[in-house]
Amino acid sequence: MKIVLFGKNGQLGWEFQRILPLLGEVVSLDRQELDLCDLHAIQNTLDDLKPGLIVNASAYTEVDKAEVETEAAMKINALAPGIMAEVARKSKAVLIHYSTDYVFDGTNNVPYKEHETTNPLNMYGKSKLAGEKNIEQAGDAYLILRTSWVYSLRGNSFVNKVLGWARKNETLKLVNDQVSNPTWARMLAEVTNLILFKNGENLFENIKEKSGIYHLAGSGHTSRFEWATQILANDPDREGQVVKNILPTTSDEFPTPAMRPLYSALDCSKFERALICAYLIGRVRYNWQCSDRFAGICWRHL
Ligand SMILES: NC(=O)c1ccc[n+]([C@@H]2O[C@H](COP(=O)([O-])OP(=O)(O)OC[C@H]3O[C@@H](n4cnc5c(N)ncnc54)[C@H](OP(=O)(O)O)[C@@H]3O)[C@@H](O)[C@H]2O)c1
Predict the structure, then answer these.
(1) Which of 58, 79, 187 to mutate for ligand 1's pocket (most ligand atoms within 8 Å of CB)?
(2) Can 263 be counted among the known catalytic residues?
């Protein structure tokens, strides 16, 4: 099977580059090879390559910048996935796409389920929600996997930011009122691969039967403040830290260009029921707090 992977250098895309070859011949594309703002190029490239599977790990993920770079965010997060879905439908290919907890407004006090009302507070969330709708409208065999607080030791991830801040500042202030599920990028890629592998015999028909939106995130939710505290406690190079105080603050005291939902934890039970056997869940849904997983696996292998 030919597979096209978009966003190969991102947190999730990088993990996919490593494991998608287990499923077939992979053509990985980065921004230089194909700019997703060029909507015709997406269509032409997919028409030429004729993949049986499209994995879209790309996105405009700069939440604050999206407030001003609205056009780019809408093209990359909303229009491009719509085109991918349309091409996939016409050529009987499967589309795997990722969305976000930021489609919700964060007024819940229990984890969000898929059917609950969306009401994004910022342009990033609005563009991702529009992408979901475009795929639902144009798609045939697709999975839209909503995830949250994706982390790795790559790029400008929250983990890297916290480790960097702790090396430059004696006092760190982090919001304690934004809560969601930290999700390891490798877990997302591995679980997705398992699903594709498990449905591989007749991938298009099998995924078509299950097409829809699912929540897939790390188990356990926490605040940015607690998460940062845990990251620093697990830092293998603690001597490099100059930080002495980590203080909780609130979103009101720490305004950003884009508003964030306060409570956007995701309930992943629909995904677990529909897409993965129980014995695999324990293996692959890493809890952010579980020290052997978080400290051991993450630090050693990222
Ligand atoms: N990060 C999070 O906390 C988070 C939370 C919830 C949901 N998600 C969703 O999870 C998925 C994966 O996120 P991630 O954290 O892995 O994202 P990421 O690290 O920011 O990677 C995004 C990728 O998209 C590529 N891209 C952006 N604009 C492009 C363009 N115009 N043309 C071609 N490629 C372009 C980037 O290329 P460059 O490397 O060239 O920039 C990068 O490789 C996304 O759908 C995201 O919305 C993420």
Answers:
(1) 58
(2) no
